[in-house]
Design goal:
This protein is mostly helical. It has helices at 10-62, 77-80, 118-205; strands at residues 84-92, 95-104. Helices cover 70% and strands 9% of the residues. A two-stranded antiparallel ribbon has the order 1-2. It starts with 9 loop residues before the first helix and ends with a helix.
């Protein structure tokens, strides 16, 4: 990106100083936001790892009895499929994220005297798996949103630290040198003009 041309005036000098002040005041806020987001992103990554472990544990426990689901006339799908995934929202470091609350399932309406005894246990275990998967999906969304904001914030921090603040400092230095040179030259010209005037007055008085 081409560097913006500056004017070598006192007005431009004030403008550059004001911009520098704004960048320097805002940078700590950005840096704090970056730190908060980094912490939250790490939290979601830890949660996702925990959920993966829970899923593997549930699946491992299911291996010993999952085969009985193949029995004719047994279909648990309508009782283990989530009816609703309830969430709320929260704001973390300026980012609105979904928060998992619970999973609602349909009420079992089968005949307890007809269904095998293992059905209750199977429904409970499969629902447990469905809940962990639903929770995991929400945390994945949190991670996505927080990580996206973190990348944007890091870009802004780098822009302020490595571009905007150094650029303003350099512009201020350059303008001050230019104005200083102009003022020095103006003083020099004024002295020369004064001497010429004095010489003219001397000649006129002679």
């Amino acid at each position: 990106m081409a560097r913006k041309k500056i004017k070598f005036t006192k007005g431009e000098l004030k403008s550059q100083r004001d911009s520098l002040g704004q960048f320097q005041r805002y940078l700590p806020t950005l840096q704090l936001k970056q730190q908060q987001l980094q912490i939250e992103v790490r939290k979601t990554e830890a949660q996702l790892k925990k959920h993966r472990g829970e899923v593997e544990e549930i699946k491992k426990n299911m291996v010993s009895w999952i085969g009985i689901l193949a029995e004719p006339g047994i279909d648990l799908a309508k009782w283990v499929k989530p009816k609703d995934i309830v969430t709320s929202s929260d704001n973390i470091a300026g980012v609105n994220i979904p928060v998992f609350r619970r999973v609602d399932f349909p009420d079992p309406d089968y005949d307890l005297f007809v269904m095998p005894l293992w059905v209750d246990y199977a429904i409970e275990e499969i629902r447990k798996l469905a809940e962990v998967l639903a929770r995991n999906k929400i945390v994945e969304k949190q991670h996505e949103l927080l990580n996206k904001e973190l990348k944007t914030t890091m870009q802004r921090v780098n822009l302020f630290e490595k571009v905007k603040i150094p650029e303003c400092k350099e512009n201020i230095k350059t303008i001050r040198i230019y104005i200083g040179d102009q003022e020095t030259n103006a003083v020099g010209r004024s002295k020369i003009a004064k001497k010429k005037i004095e010489k003219v007055l001397e000649l006129a008085a002679a």
